[in-house]
Every structure is written in structure tokens, then in C-alpha cells.
TrEMBL record:
PANTHER family documented for this protein: COBYRIC ACID SYNTHASE, DETHIOBIOTIN SYNTHETASE
Source superkingdom: Bacteria
HAMAP family: CobQ
Tagged with keyword Protein transport: no
UniProt family annotation: Belongs to the CobB/CobQ family. CobQ subfamily.
The protein's annotated pathway: Cofactor biosynthesis; adenosylcobalamin biosynthesis
Ranges where the CobB/CobQ-like glutamine amidotransferase domain occurs: 262-431
Name assigned to this protein: Cobyric acid synthase
InterPro entries recorded: Class_I_gatase-like, CobQ/CobB/MinD/ParA_Nub-bd_dom, CobQ_GATase1, CobQ_N, CobQ_synth, GATase_3, P-loop_NTPase
Main function: Catalyzes amidations at positions B, D, E, and G on adenosylcobyrinic A,C-diamide. NH(2) groups are provided by glutamine, and one molecule of ATP is hydrogenolyzed for each amidation.
Pfam families per record: CbiA, GATase_3
Length: 502
């Protein structure tokens, strides 16, 4: 095999990332050397590769599905929102500046098409197959002229396109038809067909609609994936993470006689790398909630202030909502608080920021003896160390440089009593360290909580990726999918003028 595929979607959150990862894991289990690719990603959840490049966490997860090491080639353009209308542009793993949405779409984006096509070509020269993920919808006709992530990359590289639709939202047939009908003849020629995602019920009841869709579009459906709980992967996000009433909790009950441990995560503005708490949620008996009111901290055994793309803005938000005072009371009472990256910085004494917010001197919460100065250069590293007697791995993504002036050493940060702070993302994925940390939290909370001795976060992630591969293997027409990846879109697919069915 020597081919490729673009997985597009009728909407954002249609399931492109999940389907891409599933196809990657299915292919690698067939002995195919495969890599993921997303030309342009907008996300505050990012990762650091071994060579010190910043890419979207979704692409790092997809690389894991492929059983390969992630590289900057897999996500050459990363946009990190910093406000309503601007983002930091990360090119080939390194930040190159802030840009407004109008400035980016007005010209800069189109200039990057050659770069992303070169990255894709390099991957295709190394791997048997490259499975590309689109963004949003390929039918965003207002953005088509400068598009480099959907039909722009498909046209430039001659990739067949599979359109994913979330049937759980409703209107999937109209979305499939409308997506194709809005495209130009040249773009339509690459759209091979559809994949239905999140179906509940009897597939036989759906089949007449799929036949009618093929009659209307001349394009087949490559599979119907059933709705499955617990398939969440490292999410992408736009400007913010909606609370959505989100409760991430483990599906395994705690050991007999043990108590549940409650973790509250402050849902600060521009929250980044909130996936840090997934390893906690994977522990039996740990319940993780995202909160935005001080009363929601009352019954929490641990409060986490996560990373953020806007440290000063998050600090103001905490004060406005009364959460800052609630955190100060917790620290004074010796109740556990953990700050990660931006959350660590705002727990300190003061911040000097002429880079991110340009607010200058800002007083922090004063819970840790730390002074932070924002530097123009971004720190991007994959540190390894030890804490609580256990080996720890993590990754750092930050402009803020922390000067620790007291307390007890904790990774790259410090701790005072039961308040901890570190820049290290991903540290809780280190199983031994996570268990040691939770034992300290439980002791401070007076809980009879005992971490499960055999919980392996890496193994759970592998199981999750295999479940995605199973979805494709068991519910997609894999023979047809293989031919599509290897040979490209079928020849002679009909053009659908807008409004044709009427």
C-alpha cells in the first residue's frame, strides 16, 4: 500500500479525530506503516514531541494509534487561541507570533499551503499510508479560497475524502448531501463517500436512507459506527472549553471499604491541556468535575487549577467569581491544591507579563513563594525527574519563567504544606507518582481511599485505541476502505448542483 485519505466532517465534533485514530489503529494491526496528519489544528490542548516541537494532542494520540513517535510533520500548523479574535501561530512546532483571525485568513494561511503539502509529501515518502484529518467542515465556502486543511489539502495532494457525520445530532442525510452540493466540481470529484458516526438502534432501519443518499449523490456509505460510551480521546477545542456539565469519572468501583476521592478542576478561561486530569479520572474511585463556583470546592478533596493560555485573565476570573478566596482558605486549612503550568504561575506571589497579556506587574494569589516573568521565547521540553519517591515524566509548554524562592522542591516548582505547583503537564500519567500523590491527598482529606495498585494509564490508553480500531474493523467496509486509501476516489463521480433534489 502507498496511499492516503482525508477524513472530513459535516461539522466540528462529528468524530473526525476518533475515526482518524480508529483507521490508523486498524491499519497498523494489518501490518501497514501508517502516520496521522492534520495540516492545521486549532486547539489549546497541545503536546511536546521528542525534538521539542509543539503539536496538537489529538495528533500525538493518533501517532500513538499508529504506534509511532509523533513529530511536527504530523501537525505543521497549530493555532492557539488567546482571545476572541486572535491566536498564537505555531509553525512546525515553534511559535512565530500572534495573529488576528482576519489577518490569518486574509493571506497568511494561503502562504502556508506549500509548507503543509511539503510535510505531507515527506510523510507519504516515509509511510505506507497517511490518514489526514480535516477541520470543521469542508463546505465552509467563506473560507475555501484560503483553505489548507480540508479540500485545499485534498486537491493539492490528490487525496480521496471520506465525510463523517454525527447522526446522534440529527439531520445527517441533509448534512451529507449539503456538504457535497456546496463544493465545486473539482472538489466534489474527490469526495468518495460517507461514514455515519454515533448510530443508536437497528441499522436495517437506516439502510433505505443510505440507499436514497447514494441515489442522490452517486456516493456510497463506507460504514455505520455505533454509539459507544467512553471513547473520548485527547480533545481539540476552540476558544474555550464549555463546562457541559462534564463529570469525568472512572468506570471501575473503588476497592471494598475504600472511599471515593473527589477532584474539582477550576474551569479557567482559555483552559489548556485539561487532559492532564484524565489520568486521575482513570483511577477507580476518583471522580473529576470541572467547576466554576466557589461552593463547588466545598466537598472537593483536591482542587486543581489547570493550565491556561491566559494566566492573568484566569487570575482575574478566579477573583471575580470568589474562587481565589476559596483557594486561599483551602491552602490556609491545609486542604490540597495543585496548580499546573498557568495554574501554578497564578498561585505565586506576582507575575511580570509583557508577553501574553502585556499587563505588566500583577499580584498573584500568594499561595506559593514563586515569582513569574514571561519571556518571549516559549519553553518546550520533555523533562524526566523524581517526586514523592517515584519517577515522573512530563512535558512543558509555557512562556512564564518561575523563580522559586522558598518551600519544598516539587518537580520544577515547589510545595508549601498541601499546596503544590509545577509546570509539568502529563506528570499524573506516571502511575507510581500518581498513586503516591493520591495517597497524600487522601491522607490530608481524611479519606479511606486506596489507589488501585495495578492501574496503568498507558495500558488503558492502548485499550481505548484498540476499541477505536475495533469500531472500524467491525462496522466499516474495510475492503472498500482499503481500496479507497490505496487507489484514491473512484472515477466518474457525479457533480451535484446545489438544490438538485428539488
Amino acid at each position: 500500500m502507498n496511499g492516503g485519505l482525508l477524513v472530513a466532517g459535516t461539522t466540528s465534533d462529528a468524530g473526525k479525530s476518533v475515526v482518524t485514530a480508529g483507521i490508523c489503529r486498524w491499519l497498523v494491526r494489518q501490518g501497514v506503516k501508517v502516520a496521522p496528519f492534520k495540516a492545521q489544528n486549532m486547539s489549546l490542548n497541545s503536546f511536546v514531541t521528542r525534538e521539542g516541537a509543539e503539536i496538537g494532542r489529538a495528533q500525538a494520540m493518533q501517532a500513538q494509534a499508529c504506534r509511532v513517535e509523533p513529530t511536527a510533520l504530523m501537525n505543521p500548523v497549530l493555532l492557539k487561541p488567546g482571545g476572541e479574535r486572535s491566536s498564537q501561530v505555531v509553525l512546525l512546532g515553534k511559535p512565530v507570533g500572534e495573529m488576528s483571525a482576519r489577518g490569518y485568513h486574509g493571506g497568511r494561511q494561503r502562504q502556508l499551503l506549500g509548507t503543509v503539502l511539503d510535510c505531507l509529501a515527506e510523510l507519504r515518502g516515509t509511510y505506507d499510508a497517511v490518514i489526514c484529518e480535516g477541520a470543521g467542515s469542508p463546505a465552509e465556502i467563506n473560507l475555501r479560497r484560503t483553505d489548507i486543511v480540508n479540500m485545499g489539502i485534498a486537491r493539492g495532494a490528490g487525496l480521496p475524502v471520506l465525510v463523517v457525520g454525527d447522526i446522534d445530532r440529527g439531520g445527517v442525510f441533509a448534512s451529507f448531501f449539503g456538504t457535497v452540493a456546496l463544493l465545486s466540481p473539482q472538489d466534489q470529484a474527490l469526495v468518495a463517500g460517507f461514514l455515519v458516526n454515533k448510530f443508536r438502534g437497528d441499522v436495517s432501519l437506516l439502510e433505505p436512507g443510505l440507499e436514497m443518499l447514494q441515489g442522490l449523490t452517486g456516493r456510497r456509505t463506507y460504514g455505520v459506527l455505533p454509539f459507544r460510551h467512553g471513547l473520548g480521546i485527547d480533545e481539540e477545542d476552540g476558544l474555550r472549553v464549555s463546562l457541559r456539565g462534564t463529570v469525568r469519572e472512572s468506570v471501575v468501583a473503588p476497592p471494598v471499604g475504600a472511599e471515593v476521592l473527589r477532584v474539582a478542576v477550576c474551569a479557567v478561561p482559555l483552559m489548556s491541556n485539561f487532559t492532564d486530569v484524565d489520568a486521575l479520572a482513570a483511577e477507580p474511585g476518583v471522580v473529576v468535575r470541572f467547576v466554576d463556583r466557589p461552593e463547588e470546592l466545598a466537598d472537593a478533596d483536591l482542587v486543581i487549577v489547570p493550565g491556561t493560555r491566559g494566566t492573568v485573565r484566569a487570575l482575574q476570573w478566579l477573583r471575580e467569581r470568589g474562587l481565589a478566596d476559596a483557594l486561599a482558605r483551602r491552602a490556609a486549612d491545609g486542604r490540597p491544591v495543585l496548580g499546573v503550568c498557568g495554574g501554578f504561575q497564578l498561585l505565586g506571589e506576582h507575575i511580570e507579563d509583557e508577553v501574553e497579556s502585556r499587563a505588566g506587574h500583577v499580584d498573584g494569589l500568594g499561595l506559593l513563594p514563586v515569582r513569574v516573568r514571561f519571556a518571549p521565547e516559549k519553553t518546550l521540553t520533555r523533562p524526566v525527574g523524581e517526586a514523592l519517591g517515584e519517577r515522573v515524566e512530563g512535558y512543558e509548554i509555557h512562556h512564564g519563567i518561575a523563580e522559586v524562592t522558598g518551600g519544598e522542591a516539587f518537580l520544577d516548582g515547589c510545595r508549601v504544606g498541601r499546596t503544590w505547583g509545577t509546570h509539568w503537564h502529563g506528570s499524573l500519567e506516571s502511575d507510581g507518582f500518581r498513586r503516591a500523590f493520591l495517597r497524600e491527598v487522601a491522607a490530608a482529606a481524611g479519606r479511606r481511599f486506596v489507589p488501585a495498585p495495578d492501574t496503568s494509564f498507558a495500558a488503558l490508553r492502548e485499550e481505548q485505541l484498540d476499541r477505536l480500531g475495533d469500531l472500524i474493523e467491525h462496522h466499516a467496509d474495510t475492503d472498500a476502505l482499503w481500496r479507497l486509501i490505496e487507489s484514491g476516489a473512484p472515477q466518474g463521480l457525479p457533480f451535484i448542483p446545489p438544490g438538485a433534489p428539488a
